[in-house]
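Exam revision sheet. Question 4 asks you to relate a sequence to its structure. Input first:
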Amino acid sequence: MSVEVKVPPVGDSISEVVIGEWHKKLGEAVAADEAVVALESEKSSFDVPAPAAGYLARILKQPGETAAVGEVIAVLEESAVAAATGPVSEAPPVVERKPAGSTPSVSTAAPGGSAMAAVAAEPRIMPAAARLLAETNIPPQAVQPTGPGGRMLKEDVQRAASAKVASETSGRPAAPSLPAAPATVRVSTGRAVHRRPMNQIRRTIAKNLVEAQHNAALLTTFNECDMSAVMALRKQHQEAFQERHGVKLGIMSFFVKAAVDALQAFPAINAQIQGHDIVYHDYCDIGIAIGGGKGLVVPVLRNAEQMTFAQIEQTIGEFSKRAQSGQLLPDELKGGTFTISNGGVYGSLLSTPIVNPPQSGVLGMHAIQDRPVVREGQIVIRPMMYLALTYDHRIVDGREAVSFLKRIKDCVENPVRLMLEV
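Answer key, structure tokens:
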């Protein structure tokens, strides 16, 4: 029986996705709930599991193509399960979808053979590797796959091609020596470039950043923060904190707590413009900008005002881990009333972050650097961090923005205030 593989619902605001990598080849056996294909939405990438066990009979969408939510992108045949347990007289033909103008390829299992065994004998070849095989005329049997699950990667084909060229060169007779020719200069007619399409996440990032610049009146204010108290507190309690909660006490939890305190004191920065209205949020959903494997993502700490230091650190750690592998859920990336971006992890000393629309503010953290400062008439060395607040000047006045950033500075420099909520 045929079973359709459809694009699952992703989120209220997402109507289409881009096909990523097919984890299974045509004819390959698939277990129930096993990942079949990776999809990319505007905010994340995720795998689609097989709705039933069988084999992949048809692929209707190729990598890079767009598919709507609910659209059928592949077809499974459940009959492959029976083929694995006994011989079959004839397996259904497998037709692979090709670009317009090309001839479909049809493969039929030999009578009395196993359809699954026939396809299992071939290596799983990634699309990039398949293209390179066609260009170099190297048979798949001459390539040693090194990818996960026995997949053949582009790099495997490149190594095989290099070995082939080396063997052909070593077997040729030496060319007769000729008189030295006059030196010549090769003039290049142009420099090489390569073009690569943006993935769905990168296109969304580009669209949102341009939208923020065009639709909001953005302004940035700066301050600097003495990190001495936070660093001393972390050093004093790090071991006990980690032993009790299973996670290190970082600096992000202090800034999240400080942001919550400041947002509650200055609600305009926790608000958004909708039409001719200003919508004030009585909760703090704080987005944490994270550099993921495919670009910047901003998962959201829901109701951050209710979270403890340990809960904040644990949640951010889990977000970071899953962001690298593209496993963040769409709902974790939706919404948000304010954002914190830490460019300091990459060494940034000062920057002007861009607001994540339709939010009205973003806090930029930066690298901690020992600098001379004056304290009580004495020049001392302190670990300092520059802070930046970019805000939408349409609803946030300069006085509010400066006071907001000053309050964050005061909270971080006096972390006991955060714990006592004073």
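Marking note for examiners. Residues 208-419 form a domain with the Chloramphenicol Acetyltransferase fold (CATH 3.30.559.10).
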